[in-house]
Amino acid sequence: MADKESVNLLSPFRSIDFGIADWADGIKNWAAENRDVVQPIKWFVNDLIVTVEAIMHAIPPVAMLGLIFLLAWQAAGVRVAAFVACCLIFLGLSDPYAWGLAMTTLAVVTTSVAICVFFGLPLGLLAGKSDRFEIAIRPVLDTMQTIPAFVYLVPVVMLIGIGNVSGVIVTVVFALPPIIRLTSLGIRQVDVSVVEAARAFGSSPRQILFKVELPLATPSIMAGLNQTIMMALSVVVIASLIAVKGLGNEVLRAMGRLDAGKALVGGFGIVVLAIVLDRITQGLGRTGRERGHRHWWQGGPVGLCLRLLGKNPKETSPV
Amino acid sequence: MPAEKSQLSNNTDAVIECRHLWKIFGDRSADAMQAVQNEGLSKNEIRDKYRCVVGVQDASFSVGEGEVFCIMGLSGSGKSTLIRHINLLIEPTYGEVLIEGQDISQLGTLELRALRSTKIGMVFQNMALMPHRTVRDNVAFALEVRGIDRDVRYQTADQAIETVELQGWNDRYPDELSGGMQQRVGLARAIAADPHILLMDEPFSALDPLIRRQLQDQFLTLSAEMKKTTLFITHDLDEAIRIGHRIAIMKDGALVQIGTPEEIVTDPVDEYVADFVAGISKLQLVTAQKVMQSIEQYENSYGPLNSTDCPVAKLDDSLDHLVDLSIDTDHPIIVKQDDTVIGVVSKRTLLRGIQGKQE
């Protein structure tokens, strides 16, 4: 169709071809040729996932249930913990294999989120402190969040191969932006007059960061962590396209066999995991005032134990 | 009994001194400063030509040991900008700030931090307490940044909390306290490290009138006890007169008049200051010396004075006291110094004095 002799001025785009797609396809070949470079990273991430997964599978379901219950209780209170436990029991009962698949997914998500926090927190701090960096990073984050995962699936697979490591990388690309954005927002929202007061009393920039800015930005950072976890969970089905095991893979396989029942069980499992992780991280993100100004060790199972040991006289302050 | 200002010592060494301080905000502040020095541009010319805003222009003053120096001005007059130069939260465009004779712009980063945490305490209009810290941890903040042991700093903080009469609230959080209490925490935080200098940036402006008055009284009592050199910013002339040993009136970034409350009220340098002091009650501020006529002047106008039934006042008696003396008699008041009559205050001059008009 492209007739170079007669460029139509009203509709010029059909007749011009810079060959960008061909050029970009070269990335794929470049990736395939440079596999060796990334091998150490691959092994490191792989070891990490394998270890986390092994631990999750080694813990008997009932013990894991208990652990998550205690964690939820500490983070968000006993009511949320009971709700979370009910959800998980329901998940376990939905299918004999559901629990194991959920643990595999949880391992991939946990590893991805850990990597997101490792990179996202410092980047978010930087973006919160520097307007230039914020302006520079914003289009990158927009791209990461909106570009369809299928676009970078192929180059990643070419570079690293199919499996959990590629799955984690795809997940990180998708789930990293919220924690960067909300950390930056949290730092920017800290009351400037409080920072000024800290400066007036002789704080160093480091002391201002750790004693004022980070504590005050915590609710926002926790909201970012929460969103990062949700994004990570939502991408596990796509990641299963490149042979990531777990609930996502179950959905994918059921889809191939038109097995609506299995797809529902797998999909429901992902929703349950999302609810559980959401409630726990939301609990972590409450401000001091919302918690009634109690320290974390004054409530939950830890507070109960300390009270039983007589080391933690119950606070008289109204909650 | 209302709190009284402390008497100033005669030590005249300046603790805080500003010399020709200028602050120009904007990207081209250096050029603008140059233009001010070479061509004497006005504030508006600088704004139009360089797109820079003049925050402080050519402010010079010094505050002596134990003195409470008030800077009074309306919002936007640059007083908050000026006070932030004293601990270099804002760097001057031109001019020097000396603390105890030391030019603080010469200090290194660490020395400056040490100066802020040991020598200067600051109180802010909007309290600026840290919401995630207890009252005690807020008060102990200056000690904490210096790395002082927890037990020691808590002990010091508890003392400061007691000084502002907030004992029992140590473990509470700022949002559990009322506005007035929060500002007392702000005050405790400023005095906890026992600094030589207090910078108070409109500390009581955000409080309602009754609480403001209480805190002013509390501050006066404390200040008389502790004798800290204080720079006190306010937009309330009544407050400045109650609290300050001296007052500087600030307008458009410049200090238009510096003087004792009495000087400001009785001898305003221009219309602007005169407008300010017009509504101020002169009863406590103005003394007999200021309103009296000399005995010769009186006798020229009214004939010889028979002083036997006249009430007697001293030179530094306030108008308020003169009213008390004059209320039950028709005779003029005579003013004596060392048993000699040196002046007369007739009812007419007294009433005019209260009005603030000279006969």
Count structural domains of chain A.
Answer: 1
What percent of residues of chain B adopt helix (DSSP H or I)?
A: 25-40%
Low-confidence segments of chain B, ≥5 residues, pLDDT <50? none
CATH class of the domain at 288-355 in chain B: Alpha Beta
Put simply, the count of helices of chain A is 14
Q: Main interface pair?
A: A-B, 21 and 30 residues
SSE pattern of chain A, N- to C-terminal? HHHHHHHHHHHHHH
Query: What is the CATH topology descriptor of the domain at 288-355 in chain B?
Result: CBS-domain
What is the number of helical segments of chain B per DSSP (H or I, 4+ residues)?
Answer: 16
Name of the top-level CATH class of chain A: Mainly Alpha
Largest sheet report of chain A: none
| Shape estimate of chain B | globular
- Report the end-to-end length of chain A measured between terminal Cα atoms: 73 Å
Beta-strand residue fraction of chain A: under 5%
**CATH-scheme architecture of the domain at 288-355 in chain B:** Roll
H and E order of chain B: EHHEEHEEHEHHHHEHEHEEHHHEHEHEEH
State which percent range the strand residues of chain B make up.
15-25%
